[in-house]
Design a protein that fits this description.
There is one protein chain. This protein has about 375 residues and is of the alpha+beta class. It folds into 2 domains: about 170 residues, no CATH class; about 180 residues, no CATH class. It is built from 14 helices and 10 strands. Strands 1, 2, 3, 4, 5, 6, 7, 8, 9 and 10 form a 10-stranded mixed sheet that branches. Helix 11 runs antiparallel to helix 13. The chain starts with a helix and ends with a helix.
């Protein structure tokens, strides 16, 4: 029972850690791939989906692109519109990008078609990428075309051809955004060629996001502000932070179960060997010498349980990672399967921590040995 408790405990802890890290990594990478890590926007009272235009000093833009902590900087702009097709209408936000847009982050979620081709600057303004949600709702596919109306004075409409369909799995993005050419937004809004709605920045180390956001903001002109992705999608990242709390609760519960089983097993071993303890004491053995015998036995049980638990936990994690046999509702969890992310360092630390805590706690019940006297022990039946 002690071995079983350790086995189940370490297996559940490995799976919990792998699943939580997988969730956080998958969702974070999806959002980062679409919106970058940091966005530079005009600091005004505009709360609409249509960005306020600005121009960034070329020297400062060059400094950002050369910063070793930054992977890339890319321009974008957004403009709301209404799609009318097949007797259906759908409100969306056109996200305009340019020829320097990094498609590598979006390609994994591009389920049909291809990225926008910017080689022909005129044709690119007629190409568009829609989400799978929008395509299914409006019965569209790659190659179809539709009219999009932009509510402004005067009313503008443009015809687009679908060149790609993406499925990010993040509902608030899939329901809202389509991707097109930023030059079209410039023409519709009468912007100059160097005006943009914002800049997306990808950093090398996401763990330093807050510090790098502050660093970027400090280098901007008055009237501009740098926002981290955590500020732009607060609900998603708050939910991800709650997963850490859930993991800690699981760790505490599983460790408690393992410790209770080990303490019970050690007490039973001591009580079953009362005469043996009495004999050793009669022969001159010290309490600590006898206690070490039982601690070694406990260490063997813990070690064997850890071995079986690692085989079970890592085995199930690898099976899920390669087969995705456990499915999820994408509308609720942002993905259609349970993601797994295993790191050898995490597994080693988890095993070392469990072994250390269990052995330290075992010292307390082993103190029962000191309460056993040779005379009573040898007469014990």
């Amino acid at each position: 029972m002690a071995i079983l408790g350790i086995t189940l405990g370490i297996a559940v802890m490995i799976l919990a850690l792998a699943v939580v890290k997988g969730f956080k990594s998958e969702i974070r990478e999806k959002v980062r791939g679409f919106s970058g890590d940091i966005q530079i926007l005009k600091n005004d009272l505009n709360t609409s989906f249509e960005n306020s235009p600005f121009s960034l000093d070329p020297a400062k833009l060059n400094d950002l692109e050369k910063d070793s902590n930054i992977v890339f900087v890319q321009a974008f702009a957004t403009k709301p519109g209404i799609i009318k097709v097949n007797d259906e209408v759908e409100g969306v936000v056109l996200k305009g990008v340019d020829a320097n847009y990094n498609w590598e982050a979006l390609k994994p979620v591009l389920i049909a078609g291809n990225p926008i081709n910017f080689k022909d600057t005129f044709a690119s303004q007629k190409q568009i990428i829609v989400s799978q949600h929008t395509a299914q709702k409006l019965s569209l596919k790659v190659g179809d075309d539709f009219l999009m109306y932009f509510v402004q004075e005067p009313l503008r409409k443009r015809k687009f051809e679908i060149v790609g369909i993406y499925n990010l799995g993040v509902e608030e993005v899939d329901r809202t955004y389509v991707i097109g050419d930023i030059n079209l937004i410039r023409r519709l809004n009468n912007w100059s060629v160097d005006e943009v709605g914002g800049y997306e920045i990808r950093v090398t180390d996401f763990n330093q996001l807050d510090e790098l956001t502050a660093q970027v903001h400090d280098g901007l002109d008055i009237g501009l502000k740098a926002y981290s992705i955590k500020e732009l999608y607060p609900i998603i990242f708050q939910w991800l932070s709650l997963l850490d709390v859930n993991t800690q609760v699981i760790f505490i519960l599983m460790l408690a179960v393992a410790l209770i089983n080990m303490i019970s097993a050690l007490l039973i071993m001591i009580l079953e060997r009362t005469q043996f303890i009495g004999l050793l004491k009669a022969l001159g053995s010290s309490n600590w010498t006898i206690r070490k015998i039982f601690l070694y036995q406990a260490g063997y049980l813990i070690g064997f349980g850890l071995l079986l638990g690692n085989l079970l936990g890592v085995g199930l994690a690898m099976l899920q990672q390669y087969t995705h046999f456990i499915k999820l509702d994408q509308d609720s969890y942002y993905m259609n399967f349970v993601p797994i992310e295993l790191h050898l360092s995490d597994i080693l630390l988890l095993n070392l921590g469990t072994l250390t805590i269990c052995l330290l706690v075992m010292i307390i019940p082993s103190m029962l040995v000191s309460k056993i006297t040779p005379l009573k022990a040898l007469r014990f039946n």
